[in-house]
């Protein structure tokens, strides 16, 4: 039994090492959220087993939990670099599949069609507004900047305000609000499925997204010209790496000890 107990320990330590390595590898990934491996002990016994004699049979990985604490904010000066200051996620929709994603990485740009997107064909979702920024509906839509305004003037620039208003500027000096950034929150963000590229998707564990305006109630405000960096603490991860390595070595030593005991028994002579 000790062989299998220690073997499970080796597998658990390897999982822990993999999670920590993933955190370290993404220490410079904008919007990345670190994860932590949670373990649970395993015991086995029947109703007829003396509770004082029940022996543990090892540990198992109970969960790999994500930590959604705020990462450091870096000033970039780019108008379409936006960080969420507080709770919530940007919402994007894939122009290729129509899938909806949620992200804390606010590094956006404008494509040839005037859509504000994340570089992977995922378009930023906004509340529809009138030209002055008043929200006119709750159905989200793609953030798209018209190439010219009603007067025929060409597009000159875009800004994102703290309240989420996306304002397009034109060569004739006029400004038009094309939408208000929608912030999505979840009852259980830890239940979100990681999709890569700092994107998550909703699951039954996370619940459906609830949308609101930036800076309103529980929804975080926006910081324009800034990006949220990874929330990975390298020093903390390196300490965890050493602990996981020692755990792996200890379980390997336990297997070695069990092997020596078995060999001793086999070599017994009557």
What report would you give on this structure?
The protein is of the alpha+beta class and 270 residues long. The protein folds into two domains: 2-68 and 232-266, no CATH class; 73-228, no CATH class. Helix content is 21%, strand content 33%. Strands 5, 6, 9, 10, 11, 12, 13, 14, 15, 16 and 17 form an eleven-stranded antiparallel β-sheet that branches. Strands 1-2 form a two-stranded antiparallel ribbon. A hairpin with a 4-residue loop joins strand 11 and strand 12. The protein starts with a helix and ends with a helix. Belongs to the flagella basal body rod proteins family. Residues 224-268 form the Flagellar basal-body/hook protein C-terminal domain. This is Flagellar hook protein FlgE. Residues 83-168 form the Flagellar hook protein FlgE/F/G-like D1 domain.
């Amino acid at each position: 039994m000790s062989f299998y107990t220690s073997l499970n320990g080796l597998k658990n330590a390897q999982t822990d090492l993999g999670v920590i390595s993933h955190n370290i590898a993404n220490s410079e990934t904008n919007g990345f959220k670190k994860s932590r491996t949670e373990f649970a002990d395993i015991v086995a016994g029947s109703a007829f087993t003396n509770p004082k004699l029940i022996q543990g049979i090892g540990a198992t990985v109970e969960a790999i939990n994500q930590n959604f604490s705020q990462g450091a904010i870096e000033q970039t000066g780019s108008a379409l670099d936006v960080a969420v200051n507080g709770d919530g996620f940007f919402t994007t929709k894939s122009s290729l599949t129509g899938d909806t994603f949620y992200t804390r990485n606010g590094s956006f740009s404008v494509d040839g069609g005037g859509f504000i997107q994340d570089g992977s064909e995922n378009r930023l979702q906004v509340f529809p507004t009138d030209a002055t920024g008043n929200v006119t509906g709750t159905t989200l839509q793609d953030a798209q900047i018209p190439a010219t305004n009603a007067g025929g003037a060409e597009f000159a620039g875009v800004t994102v305000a703290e309240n989420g208003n996306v304002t397009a500027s034109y060569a004739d000096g006029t400004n038009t609000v094309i939408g208000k950034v929608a912030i999505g929150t979840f009852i259980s963000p830890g239940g979100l499925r990681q999709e890569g590229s700092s994107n998550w998707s909703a699951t039954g564990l996370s619940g459906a997204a609830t949308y609101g305006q930036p800076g309103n109630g529980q929804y975080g405000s926006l910081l324009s010209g800034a990006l949220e960096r990874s929330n990975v603490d390298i020093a903390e991860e390196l300490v965890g790496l050493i602990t996981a390595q020692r755990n792996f070595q200890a379980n390997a030593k336990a297997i070695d000890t069990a092997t020596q005991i078995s060999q001793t028994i086999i070599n017994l002579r009557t």
